[in-house]
Amino acid sequence: MFALAQQGVKSIEQQRVTNSIDNAIKKSRKLVLRCYNMIASQQEVSGVQVASYLMNYDDHYTTHTFRNLFLISIENYLQAELTKARLQ
Fold first, then answer.
1. Domain encompassing residue 40
2. Based on the structure, what is the number of domains in the chain?
3. CB 39 within 8 A of CB 5
4. DSSP element (H, E) containing 36
5. How much is the pLDDT for 52?
6. Origin, by domain of life (predicted)?
């Protein structure tokens, strides 16, 4: 994977160098996109993956439904209760 990213860097370096900040930002974006495209083009995709993508199926399966757990509010509640218990 590193070799693919290195190919992207070399191709960007071969382009003409300019001093514009906007051009530097564009080059950075091009570099990231080119590296991503090189890595993605080397990825093997199975027939099942292609069919699932074309049929708009989910990319994962789960037997359970999960809920969010907000630990900070629980921690604050426990801290308040411990403080009350200590003061009694």
1. 1-56
2. 1
3. yes
4. helix 21-41
5. 85
6. Eukaryota
Tens-digit pLDDT string for the chain (88 aa): 567 667 766 766 666 555 566 677 788 888 888 878 877 777 777 888 888 888 988 877 788 888 888 899 989 999 999 999 999 8
**Which amino acid is residue 49, in one-letter code?**
Q
Helix, strand, or coil here: 88? coil
The conformation of residue 85, written as its DSSP 8-state character, comes to H
Longest distance between any two alpha carbons in the chain, whole Å: 75
CA 86 to chain centre: 45
- Nearest Cα residue to 28 out of 15, 41, 40, 39: 15
Per the domain annotation, does 10 fall within a domain?
yes
**Residue 87 forms part of a structural domain:** no
